[in-house]
């Protein structure tokens, strides 16, 4: 019974050498990366306008449609994408709006204030979209299909 009562209790308050070295290592890694992070942030060039940002987002949506489609068909007033489930996604204009429709029903607006929208087919696997926004800014991107 006496041996049980003489049990020593250790106070575990404080840091070990290993813990201190580890925290010093992490701090030095963060401090050494800080200049390059700040340099990249200070040289960031934002979009020249809100229109440029929305057109780039539109081009991203077109790239996604192209990646997920099995076939695309260029028309004089737009482009159709055939999806694996049999649906047809159409990108075309309606007045000054560039829209996305599925099976000819409903629509989702991609761009507003569109002056013109042209699709030029270079080959079966390559086409160029040209979007002119009201105000005269023209944006163009070439897409490639690898299917």
Order of helices and strands: HHHEEEEEEEE
What is the C-alpha radius of gyration, as a whole number of Å? 29 Å
Separation, N- and C-terminal Cα atoms? 81 Å
Principal-axes geometry comes out as elongated
The quaternary organization reads as single chain
How do the helices and strands line up, and which of them pair or pack?
Blueprint: H1 2-5, H2 17-42, H3 50-68, E1 71-75, E2 78-82, E3 88-94, E4 97-102, E5 105-111, E6 114-123, E7 126-133, E8 138-144
Antiparallel strand pairs: 1-2, 2-3, 3-4, 4-5, 6-7, 7-8
Q: Tags for this entry?
A:
33% helix, transmembrane, 147 residues, elongated, single chain, membrane, three-stranded antiparallel β-sheet, alpha+beta, transmembrane helix, Competence type IV pilus minor pilin ComGF, ComGF, five-stranded antiparallel β-sheet
Structure overview:
- The chain is α+β, with helices and mostly antiparallel strands and 147 residues long.
- Helices cover 33% and strands 37% of the residues.
- The protein has three helices and eight strands; from the N terminus they run αααββββββββ.
- It has helices at residues 2-5, 17-42, 50-68; strands spanning 71-75, 78-82, 88-94, 97-102, 105-111, 114-123, 126-133, 138-144.
- The strands form two sheets. It has a five-stranded antiparallel β-sheet, with helices on one face. Strands 6-7-8 form a three-stranded antiparallel β-sheet, with helices on one face.
- The radius of gyration is 29 Å and the shape is elongated.
- The termini are far apart.
